[in-house]
Target: CpXC domain-containing protein
Amino acid sequence: MSLFSTISVTCPACGAQSEMEAAESVNADRRPDLREAILDASFQRVTCPDCGEPFRLEPDLNYLDVGRGQWISAFASARLPDWVEGEDDAMNAFAISYGVRAGTAAQEVGDTLQTRVVFGWPAMREKILLADLGLDDVTAELMKLALMRGLEGLQLEYGVDLRVLGADAGEIEVGRQRAGSGEVLEVFGVPREIFDDIAGDAESWGEMRRDLTAGPFVDLQRLYMGEGRSAPTGVAG
Model:
């Protein structure tokens, strides 16, 4: 089931405190409407009762979609610098629910699930969208790396990531997107053959693919967090 709890929230605009319902878990099989709300970026958007300012609660939840074989542990973007701890927290939660510390029936379900850890709503939306599009998320991260290497002037700023926003038969839409607010700063199309070439070139990309899949945090940032890059703090806009 999908679970919500009442939390105290501080409005980023006026500083007023109020109580709001925050998601602890989302079961997309039983609540496909919540899945759609994540995809259209309306999920957990709230309005301050004092000043009327709209803002979005940061994620701190587990997401389950047995039909699509997904289990995602989503944390606030501010936790990105502590991604190793986030992986540990997520894997402990998975072990209890669907892993070695769960019952036999739950473990059978867990064997069908791909486990992922994400930080911020844009990263979570991307994982769900990629599953919809039938695109391997590891290959998508390698495609981003190829773009950064091959496109002159494509540099990620503090708190700005590359995210897959959509795709059709001939092109994958990639955007530079703020990790906290989800604001899309720039969008460009990537020929589908670039993705397909990377997917089919196991020799050239094998080591990088192994590095990306060393844990459930499958994100380009895993490869260079050691260089000191961090994410913005605070609630999403």
Residues 58-227 form one domain. The two ends are 28 Å apart (CA to CA).
